[in-house]
Amino acid sequence: MSGTEIRQRAEDPYYAALDLMADGKLAEAVAAYRESITIDPSFTEAMHGLARALQDLQRYDEAISVAQRITELDADDVLAHTSLSVLYQKKGMIPEAEAEGAKARVLGWKQQLKKS
Q1: What is the pLDDT of residues 63-86, one digit of tens each?
Q2: Interatomic CA distance for residues 36 and 102, integer angstroms
Q3: Based on the structure, what is the number of domains in the chain?
């Protein structure tokens, strides 16, 4: 199966997870996001959704693991670093939160400069 076909298969549970999030069904959304990522382990959009759902469930350690995985796949993902900053802050890990926030700002500035 091609990468495009894999992504298309992964999108069904991803979109279902988005709907579940909108309905406030966070645990079900987590399951759907995980299904999507199982189908396509490189689907960072689904990982972002999973991290957010886990954050909303106050499952911070799991959310941190997911956000860290995103940065492994894409070190320049500003949202992943921003998410890590927020998650670390929620856990009281202030130095780590500040470090991730700084990374996110620098990456954001770099992306803005590329567009100029």
Answers
A1: 999 999 999 999 999 999 999 999
A2: 30
A3: 1
Distance CA 29, CA 33 (A): 6
Identify the residue whose tokens are 């199966």: 1
What's the pTM value of the predicted model, to 2 decimals?
A: 0.92
Residue 94: domain span? 3-115
12: CATH:
1.25.40.10
Q: Is the pLDDT of residue 96 over 90?
A: yes
**Dihedral Cα 41, 44, 52, 102, nearest 10 deg:** 130
CA distances from 36 to 18, 27, 30, 44, 101 (A): 11, 14, 10, 10, 28
Q: What is the mean pLDDT of residues 94-101?
A: 96
Residue 41 has pLDDT above 90, yes or no: yes
CB 14 within 8 A of CB 31: no
